[in-house]
């Protein structure tokens, strides 16, 4: 097998550039950005390193092959021609999922079963098996994605999505995905020695992600990944990547990260989550109305995901929260403020035009990230 692999870090819509930036920072400079994905060549080590370190990607997939298919025959033959025996052992489990967009072969269930059949046939031939394959061993999740008649076949190296860091023991009604929370932090100019506040912290996702970034803790340090079970990958890549993560973590970095929320139940949940993340008392939690915010610091960062008022009846209440927030934060012109909301009238309610806006999706909700740049501390 080749030493290099082509990896695809999948990204939520709007986060591709952020994911690409992370990929490049890990040392994989020639990353190409497409809709929803970042593609790059790397050695096997990258499978472990990317799963462990990428804070904003959804998954890391391994490209098995690409070809054109307009008929089921072409799909079958194209799939069968790939060297499946290099990836899937005799007892390997390999569920197949699919998607199809703007393609002649539009029936996803049919495409999935053709791909499955082609792989089964190839493996039976290669392993000399007459009957069925047991599929009792390690799992190799396969995806066949058709776009404009081009088939892209990948193996999912991550397993559970990378947002599942393993620290979320509790949550509220509208938790942010950990990957999006990390992106919100990365899209700021916050330096780890500056004060950082989330005034609507809910279950604590933004402050927890900020603390992990602040101490350079790999977000995947406390979880496992599908590819750890794969025999075609030398298991030493995982030990090496974990050792590297341990070396690079800066547990002595002091942080001034604060999370507050009106709801005392959320504060308890946030504290439990932070504890689970191994952050103990690194983040300071407090029950507080955002309207009561005050600080003696000259500069700092506020990064928040307040309620959006999507539900009927909540709208007026949320508008009042934005107005009060704008009024209180007027006294902190040197502070940087970053607010994610779906409310299109946010700037008017907050009373100030944002320095910059960025479109992002919070799950399926179209939101804007309103960015108000303050002064840098010296
Ligand atoms: C969208 S949720 C935040 C979710 C959070 N980012 C997470 O990942 O769990 C909004 C939060 O704002 C809180 N909240 C509502 N009104 C508030 C106010 N006036 N001051 C502070 N927090 C408030 C709610 O209790 C809720 O936890």
TrEMBL record:
Cross-referenced InterPro entries: DNA_methylase_N6_adenine_CS, RlmKL-like_Mtase, RlmL_1st, SAM-dependent_MTases_sf, THUMP_dom
SMART domains linked to this entry: THUMP
Membrane in keyword set: no
Signal sequence extent: none
Cross-referenced Gene3D superfamilies: 3.30.2130.30, Vaccinia Virus protein VP39
CDD domains found in the cross-reference section: AdoMet_MTases, THUMP_AdoMetMT
PROSITE patterns documented for this protein: N6_MTASE, THUMP
Domain THUMP: 46-157
Keyword terms of this UniProt record: Methyltransferase, RNA-binding, Transferase
A GO term, aspect molecular function: rRNA (guanine-N7-)-methyltransferase activity
A Pfam family it matches: UPF0020
Protein name: Putative N6-adenine-specific DNA methylase
The species this protein was found in: Gracilibacillus orientalis
């Amino acid at each position: 097998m080749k030493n290099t692999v082509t990896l695809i870090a999948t990204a939520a819509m709007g986060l591709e550039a952020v994911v690409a930036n992370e990929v490049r920072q890990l040392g994989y400079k020639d990353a190409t950005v497409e809709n929803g994905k970042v593609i790059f060549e790397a050695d096997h080590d990258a499978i472990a390193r990317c799963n462990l370190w990428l804070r904003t990607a959804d998954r890391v997939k391994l490209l098995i092959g690409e070809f054109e298919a307009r008929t089921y025959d072409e799909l079958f033959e194209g799939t069968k021609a790939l060297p499946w025996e290099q990836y899937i052992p005799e007892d390997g489990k390999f569920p197949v999922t699919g998607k199809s967009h703007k393609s002649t072969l539009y029936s996803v269930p049919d495409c999935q079963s053709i791909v499955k059949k082609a792989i089964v046939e190839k493996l039976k031939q290669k392993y000399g098996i007459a009957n069925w394959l047991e599929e009792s061993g390690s799992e190799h999740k396969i995806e066949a994605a058709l776009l404009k008649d081009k088939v892209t076949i990948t193996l999912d190296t991550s397993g559970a999505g990378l947002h599942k860091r393993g620290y979320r023991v509790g949550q509220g009604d509208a938790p942010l995905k950990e990957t999006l929370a990390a992106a919100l932090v990365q899209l700021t100019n916050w330096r780890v020695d500056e004060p950082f506040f989330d005034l609507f912290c809910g279950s604590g996702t933004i402050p927890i992600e900020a603390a992990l970034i602040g101490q350079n803790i790999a977000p995947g340090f406390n979880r496992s990944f599908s590819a750890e079970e794969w025999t075609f990958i030398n298991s030493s890549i995982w030990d090496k990547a974990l050792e590297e993560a341990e070396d690079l973590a800066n547990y002595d970095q002091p942080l001034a990260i604060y999370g507050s929320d009106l709801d005392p139940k959320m504060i308890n949940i946030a504290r439990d989550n932070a504890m689970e993340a191994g952050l103990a008392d690194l983040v300071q939690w407090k029950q507080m109305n955002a309207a009561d915010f005050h600080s003696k610091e000259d500069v700092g960062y506020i990064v928040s995901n307040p309620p959006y008022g999507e539900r009927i009846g909540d709208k007026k209440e949320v508008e009042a929260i934005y107005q009060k927030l704008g009024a209180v934060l007027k006294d902190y012109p040197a502070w940087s403020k970053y607010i994610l909301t779906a409310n299109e009238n946010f700037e008017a309610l907050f009373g100030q035009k944002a320095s910059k806006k960025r479109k992002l999706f919070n799950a399926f909700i179209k939101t804007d990230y309103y960015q108000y740049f303050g002064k840098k501390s010296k």
